[in-house]
Amino acid sequence: MSYYSATDHFVLLPAILLALFGCAVLLLDFVFSGLRRAALLTFTLLGLAFCGAALWRQQAYLNSGLGELTAFGGALTIDRFALFFNWLFLGASALVAIVSLAYLDRKKTGPSEYYALMLFAQCGMFFLAAGTDLVTLFIGLELMALSFYVMVGFLRREKRSNEAAMKYLLLGAFSSGILAYGFSILYGISGSTRLSDIATAVAARGAHDPVLFLALATTAAGALFKISAVPFHMWAPDAYEGAPTTVTAYLAVASKAAAFALLLRLLLGPLESARAIWSPILAVVAVATMTLGNLAAISQNNIKRLLAYSSIAHAGYILLGLVAGNETGIQGVSVYLLVYTVMTTGAFFVVLTMSGGEDIADLGGLAKRKPWLAMLMLLFLLSLAGLPPTAGFWGKYYIFLALIQTGHYTLAVIATLYIAVALYYYFRIVRFMFASDAENPAPETSFGLRLALGVTAALTLGIGLYPEPFLKMAQSSLIGTP
Amino acid sequence: MPPGYLPLFIFLAVAILLPTLTLVAARLVRPSAPSRTKLEPYECGIKAASNSRGRYTVRFYIIAILFVIFDVETIFLLPWAVQYRTLGWFGVAEVFVFLSILIVGYIWAYKKGAFEWV
């Protein structure tokens, strides 16, 4: 019996490379003492590039029409869904890695462990997107979460960072426990950890089975925690505010997208036949999430907290795509996650330039000192609110289209109303930037930050004006398409 | 109820009943004459030296974590050693991958001074 075939290796290669480069980054700091910090960044980017090359080969394999790749007896599956999410993680990691160097310098802390943790976290996300086995999924989730707990508390000398890490760790560990409990019930009703076997067992149970309901509720609770949906959102504002801003950006996009990958894999895979149970639950959760996120964002003065609540609200919109559940809706989820990644990282990168405080008032008069930076922030905020011609519009467009196609008119109306609320609090920031004469310390930008801002801004506008290739990519990423 | 669970329930019932019965029986039989010395947490004849909520150095947590790491290492090595022949070269390679990842952590902790006391 062979334990490790060439296909296994081919499938696992991106994760192997990420882990290898993570370990290497950790040790490089010692081997070449006094190594220039930029060299560590270069090495991290090299690792991401190698991972990208491995993903590219997998993509080429899928494009050649030979069907999806499975490895380790079905524990890992590389389909277009897994690849779409992995490209997303890769992009987010690269952008955050580039901007982190100058930020960590400013905070006077070493980048070696930081970059290693980033690579390890991405390794965990790989398994979350590609895993088709409960154990693989759980270990992937934990690898990602453990790396994030440390990264959130990376500024050891700042009390807020410590507090954020502790809150995130305690609540996150609790939610992982609930998720593991749900997984154990899924294993209990099917006798297998493979998602395909679980699908058969769940379908045989019928939609009104109490055990199935328990498994569904606990599993969903664990995943909903990570995407900060109400009522599991409490950690998000504190963790987002206390974490180093680069980590906040990474946490807001990559961790959330990975948790959505897990949720989609479970709900559209083995739990698809129980849609009658989870669809109404998710509808309630989505409305509660949008309501709380949007209403709580109004009264925030710290910009990272405001963006945290806005990211909670976005999670609600994305969940609506799952509630609609038709092809447009699921495609909408992918599109939304893509544009959300681009515009949210962009907005957090502008926050990174703030060298003074992190309140909205500290952005006052930005348009006078750095007009281009204020214009970029305006672009990201317009996109977050979902106005054309920005990328955010297409995310909302597909979700709304799917809701109307499936007859969820009430949900569509509620979601539209909250756009008006969102416009109000986003334009509070705009008002400070453009209509205030406040004297604040000049924003600091490094080369990496300008580069990352340029890329995110170009993508925000580019997807908004010419969405076809991105929409096609998202459409092909639907679960089940090889 | 599934068939195999009956012994489990008997075990559970015994586990609950036995301490309850002994405690209740002792309560009914024994005389009750508490005194200050008798009510101390450790009734061993020697006076308590200090509060049990004493402080100790935070460095112990690093020792504890290192212990857990090497403990887990042993847990993984044992089944490999048992299945050594069946797993063959694949097992050897896999264990070396596992060990080298641990060694990276070990070197890192060593260089960071985790093993230096004070």
Explained architecture:
The complex is a heterodimer of chains A (482) and B (118). Chain A has 482 residues and is mostly helical. Chain A folds into two domains: 270 residues; 207 residues, no CATH class. Chain A is 77% helix and 1% strand. Chain A is built from 19 helices and two strands. Chain A has a two-stranded antiparallel ribbon with strand order 1-2. In chain A, a hairpin with a 4-residue loop joins β1 and β2. In chain A, α4 packs antiparallel against α5. Chain A is globular. Chain B has one domain: Methane Monooxygenase Hydroxylase, Chain G, domain 1, CATH 1.20.58. In chain B, α2 runs antiparallel to α3. The model of chain B has no long low-confidence stretch (mean pLDDT 85). By secondary structure, chain B is mainly α. In chain B, 0% of the residues are buried.
Determine the structural class of chain B based on helices, strands and strand pairing.
mainly alpha
Q: Could you tell me which chain pair has the largest interface and how many residues each side has? A: A-B, 8 and 8 residues
Low-confidence segments of chain B, ≥5 residues, pLDDT <50? none
Q: What's the number of extended β-strand segments of chain B? A: 0
Q: Ranges of chain A with pLDDT <50 over ≥5 residues?
A: none
Globular, elongated, flat, extended or rod-shaped: what is the shape of chain A? globular
Total DSSP E strands of chain A: 2
Spatial strand arrangement across the major sheet of chain A:
1-2
Total number of domains of chain B: 1
